[in-house]
Structure formats: C-alpha cells, structure tokens
Queue: 2 jobs
Job 1
Amino acid sequence: MPGSCGQSEDLPTLYSPVQADFANAADDAGPNVAVRAVGKQYATHPGSEHWALCDVSFDVRPGQAVAVLGRNGSGKSTLLQIIAGTLPPTRGEVEVRGRIGALLELGSGFNAELTGRQNIIVTAAVLGVSRSKHNEYMAAVAAFADIGQFIDQPVKLYSSGMFVRLAFAVQACIEPEVFIVDEALGVGDLAFQYKCIRHFESRLARGHSLLLASHDVTLVRRLCQRAVILDRGRAVANEPATVAVERYLTDFGQASRTGAHISGSEIDNALDDAAACRSLVRPRRTEGGHGAAEILGLSIEDAAGRPRSSFHHQQEMVVRTFVAAHSSAAAVTCDVILSDASGWQVWSSRSTGVVPASIEAGRHYVDRVEVTLSLGPGRYFVSCAISVAGEEHDRFANAVEIEIQEFDLRTSEPVPFWGATALPYQVRPLVVLPDARRPGD
C-alpha cells in the first residue's frame, strides 16, 4: 500500500547515501544533509503494513544543529538510522556531504568481550582510520573518554555512563562533518555532557553539522538552531528550535505523561472555574479511588492562566487540583509535590503550612497552589496527593513533566545558576578587622 503514506506513486524509491567531498564543497552553499520525501514501511503481519516514516523532508546546513523532537514511537530513531546509512528507506532520498559520525544505540558496534582499547582498534579499522594514525587516534579517544584504567577492561563490565563516554569518543575523534546523536547523551554524567556540548559547539563553528534526537529541551535550546517535530512518522513542524520546543511542550508535553487531556465538562459541568480546565490532566485508572476523596485531575498554568509545561527561573506556576468528595470529612489537605528527574522530592506544599479544609459528600472541589519556581534549570515532575487527618487517601504521582529553562524568556539571556535551588539570602559588605584581631578571637 505505497499510497497510504499520502505520496504520489511516481516518487523515487532510491536511497542515495552519497557522501560528497566536504573539503571540495566547502564553499558550496548547499546543505550537509538533504532529506527528501523519505518514508519507511514495515510489514507488521500478512496483509498489514505500517509506515514508520511518511514523506519527511528537511535540510541541515553547514554550521547548523537540528533537533528531531517527538514522543516515543514517532519515528526519530528510524529517521536517524536512515540518514546514517544503517537502514534503507522504503522511498525517498538522502544525501550527506562529508563523513558521518553516528551514536545511535548505546554500545552499538562494540564487542562486549573485548576491552575498551581493543574495541577502539576495531572501530578505527571500520571507520577508515589509517594504520599510521592508529596510535594518535587511540590517544585522542582515551583522553576524550577519560575512563582511566577501565579502558583495558572488557566493556561488558562498563556502566552505561562509561559505555556512552567511549562510544561518543570513538565517533567524535574521527572529526565527522555530520554528527548524528540519538538520545545517548542523557546517559552520561553532567561533566561529560558539558564536555560533549563544548565539542559540538567547536565543530559547528567550523561549518560541521549536528542532528540530535533528544527529550532534553534545555539541550536542544542551547545547541540547535532549528528543530523538526515528528508525530506518528510525519514531520508536523520544521522551524526555529525555540519555537519548536515551545510547540512540542505545549502540544505533546503533558499528553506524553501518565495523564490524558480532558475538558472541564467531562468532570463536572457545574464547576464555577471551568476556564481552569482548558488543559486538564487526569489519572488513568482501572477503577476510582476508594477513600473519602478522589483526585480527578490537575492543570498546570502560568500566573495569567495559560496552560503550559515550560517555565523560566523564578516564574510563578499555578497548580489546580480537582477533587471529588465521596464522603464528608474534615481536616482535608491537598498537597503538591515537585521532584527532580532522579526522583528526589525538592519541594512540597505540605511543608509550607497548608490550611486543612472540610469537604461534603457528592461535591467537587478545586485546590489552587501558587509557587515561584526558584529551582535550577532542568526537568521536574509534579505530583499531587489528598489527605484526611494526615492519612493519604489518593495520589497522582508524576502527573505532569515540566521544564525550567536555562534561559530567561523575558531577556533571552542565560540564567546564572549554581546549585539546586535559590534560597533567600543577603550578602553584607566586608568588615575590616583590626590588625590585632584574628578570626575566632
């Protein structure tokens, strides 16, 4: 069923992984990567076919970093594999100018029984590094990976972090004109991630290109000029990265979590504050809560009441939790919890003196919590819980993922930030001590 992809039948079905001479084409204004009407079809079972990619087209120009955004299963990895030349498309055309370096799957191409050093030698041969430069290449990879004595240990003993260090280094040190990375940087530690970012920035300044698939929108904003958003195999946006990230977080951010978008009328047509339900996320349950109160859902907004999941440092976030009372009760509290990407709880409204309330059976309630996000840039998860007399009756864990941006949206300037949170403090001027006094006297 080739036509099911929405393309004409006479489109070319050729694959052109042509790698033109980068040096000879350096003055050419053409793209380093050209993707034209690429589609990939799989036969799921007899008589049924699935298009993992459908009519995807875009360019990556010299000195440009392009992100590929999308939910799991949207076709990101398939697209990058096709561009890297490890997977042929069903139709369409790809042309790459220059050498490709691809980090597609963690540890792909490594022999688990060989040491890191032996894997570097094998990789050098596969990537076309001349024998005369093997020692130079080995030294460069070892320095970049910086895994110490583990380079002489079998890679089957490596942690995922060491794996990604070595995998990135073997690709980076061939100095590819086109670097393709599929999610792998999220595995490395923070220091190594910054090392990779600095490497990318130096290569982009020399006219090389980067294709990056990542859910880390802070990284995308920092590195990428443009972004392509994939949804069920189709490119639904190809635009400046900052615009695409905002679209991705708004259109896909909350829906990709454990909740589902619903309208306020689906909870209760009689809610007085129905405007707050424009972007509501509710738990997916096989059955309702059995306590005195049940969490029906929550919404995340800014101070102006606009639904969003991306904020800047020190911006106010409003969390509305919608609750159904199954029985009357007193001493009811609704708590909002923020956790970081590792699962550590970084803030809870419970610690700020929540005033208990009473609820009446059969009625619905809306709890509103306003919090100033004095946290460092990164991903956080919002949870909510409802308790009666200190006993938890319902919880909606990791309901929504939010992002606190590295850049202040109002000024477009990076936020100078060290640590995890911004605590109130005051710095007083230095006081000159008399010569006869020493600290502690």
Job 2
Amino acid sequence: MNRTAVISTVVLLLCGGAMLAAWLLPPGESSPGAQDSPPRPPQPVAHRPAAPAPPRPATAAAAAAVPQAPDRPQDLWRDHPTASPFEAVRWHAEAPQVLVGGRWYDLVSLDGIPAAQILSFCRALDERDWRKRFEQDLYEVLCRMEHEPGQRVKLVVREPGAAAGATRTLENVPMTAENRRAIWWARRK
C-alpha cells in the first residue's frame, strides 16, 4: 500500500468512515478492524449544472435601482430600528387589537394609513409570517411603504365592539423599543 493510501485510510478511520476506507484500499487488503466483507465500489456522483447568473443591469443608474437582498435571509427584517407604538398585539380573526396605555383597541389607522392597507402590505411582503411582520417589524414595514414613522405616531382606534363611527384619536404615541421587545417576548410564550 502506498503512502497516500495509508494516510487516506487513517484519516477516514479517525473520522468514522470505515466503509469509505474500504473503497480506497486495493482488492484483497482490508483496513484494521474491518469485517471480512468485500469492499463496495463508490457510487457515481450526479452532477447538477450551475445555476444561471442573474441578469446584470445595463447602466449604473439601473444598478442603483436594483434593491440589494441581504446575504442571509434572516437579515431581511433587520435593516431598521425595532420600535412599536403598541404594548401588545392580539388578533380577532384577521384584525389586530392593540394595547395602548393599558387599554385594548381595534386599530383603525396609524399616521393616516388605514390598518387594512398596512396589513395588506404585510401579507404582500411575507405571506407566511405577515402577522409577525405587523407585530415585530412594523417600523420596517412602514418604511417600505415609504412612510418612515417618527418617534411618536398618531393612532386612530376604536373600542372593541363599538360602532364603526365611534373612533378615538391618540396623538403622540411613542414608538419604543420596550414595546417591541414586550411583543417579541409575548410571541415566544
């Protein structure tokens, strides 16, 4: 047995690859500790063609207009501050109920954007986890809607079960990291 075969056999045995080591040995030889079964030939490896490269923009202006995706999918929702005006969120069918100032409300709008429009945008961004996007990534969702919220927002809300016209406006509701963190923790319980 030549030096390369010995080294390959030792490395494979140390890594738990006794069957692979048997394939590398010449016929009639066995590795230390191997059973008296004949070595199996290696199976052919299926080769897949490489994926085509994405098309490149023709001009520098076109290249600047193409949004760059993060390198890792888990970074997709980490580009903006994590803040929320809600202390908690619960769901009544497809509509969110939000806790603000210790009271539960149906959300009608946020900074003049109807809640239905925000929810529709969340669904378009992430069909599977759209509720999570509303609860935990509201700041980024609003930025993607081209409405960057300030440190305080205006909410139009309605008491749960109240008539459609019985709304209340909550001015200067703070967008805080503490609120968002509380929502994040509540989702893990």
